[in-house]
Amino acid sequence: MLSTHRDVLSLGNADEFANGSLELSFYAGKSVFLTGHTGFKGGWLTAMLRHLGASIHGYALVPETQSNLFGIADIQSFLSSHTLADLADSTAMLAAMRAAQPEIVFHLAAQPLVRRSYIEPALTWQTNVQGTVNLLECVRQCPSVRAVVIITTDKCYENQEWHWGYRENDHLGGHDPYSASKAACELVVNSYRASFFNASGVRIASARAGNVIGGGDWAADRLIPDAVRAIAVGQMLQIRNPAASRPWQHVLAPLHGYLLLGKALLCGQAGVDSSFNFGPSQQDNLSVVNVLKRLQGHWPELELALSTAGEQSHESQLLYLDSSKAQHVLGWQSRWNLAKSLEKTAGWYRAEHAGNECMQRYTLDQIEEYFL
């Protein structure tokens, strides 16, 4: 059974962190406004911030799937405030932000699925572009905010299907509505930085991460959640795009980068109010089918079947990020390689399926292990 009492779990304080957490003990006691906290990445970031001793104020929609990290790991118990509302509701967002009086804002809320963007393009544009504009307008009306980190995606680049990594100064673009909306979101960030925030002293940066894996994701049309669902019902997993290559990493890796970026912004580090890539090493940029075959080593029940159905929507075949800027400027690097990431991901889902673990504690244990 999940604990609903914060004091049951030993979360530590800024002086008790493992060595790897000391670089982020800066967040202890700070007020953080986080959009998208009910989602997969947002839930993990909430748990990381609570591990670091921050006061977290969440703003998001209800979880979209019946199974979700937010409920299973009792993420709500980590929050100082919890607002369920849409990015389109500027009045609710401004009220929540002003009540929180945050020093920093992490914006993760989005419509994050490529295939859904073909089905609901208007919703995708409204959420990802106008939703970001609404957030930044609220920031302009909340004097406590000193820094903003906007999360976009590696898919914001104009994909050339080349074999080397995209750098932050490469051309933005997007074939599908999701990718294009995220490229447009980057333009919004640049515009607000130049037009408003440079003069006001608010520092803003964008973060572009590759494909993430980890426990607690049940979103549609994602590789690991699709595998989890197939195993649960004893079916073979139909692989839609087996040759597609992606930069795979554990969700904790880019979230660690976001936190380092936020710290650098708040501390006034020069040159960080810009865009940053957070992706794995090139050796972890593997095809879909190779990732699933490695996952079978931890999950023998997983059976694979190559799909013969024609693809209905455009998907990039090659995608790789050059993260040297984050490494040199922020001192960031992924602490877990793909093998470790797959092991930890499979372990989380197997523990949840077995039903004999406190998944909040299991989630925090993985965070603590990541920082060892």
Task: Note the gap between the termini.
Answer: 27 Å
Helix content: 25-40%
Q: What proportion strand?
A: 5-15%
Q: Give the radius of gyration.
A: 19 Å
Give the total of beta strands: 13
Largest sheet: 7 strands, parallel
Shape: globular
Order of helices and strands: EHEHEHEHHEHEEHEEEHEEHEHHH
Structural class: alpha/beta
Uncertain segments of ≥5 residues (pLDDT<50)? 1-19
How many separate helices?
Answer: 12
Overall pLDDT metric: 89
Order of strands in the sheet with most strands = 3-2-1-4-5-6-11
Domain NAD(P)-binding: 34-344
Protein name: CDP-glucose 4,6-dehydratase
Keywords: Lyase
EC number: 4.2.1.45
SSE blueprint:
Elements: E1 31-35, H1 40-51, E2 55-60, H2 69-72, E3 79-84, H3 90-100, E4 104-107, H4 114-119, H5 121-140, E5 147-151, H6 177-200, E6 203-209, E7 212-213, H7 223-232, E8 237-239, E9 245-247, E10 249-250, H8 252-266, E11 275-278, E12 285-287, H9 288-296, E13 304-306, H10 324-330, H11 338-354, H12 359-370
Parallel strand pairs: 1-2, 1-4, 2-3, 4-5, 5-6, 6-11, 7-10, 8-13
Antiparallel strand pairs: 9-12
Helix pairs in contact: 1-12, 3-5, 5-6, 11-12
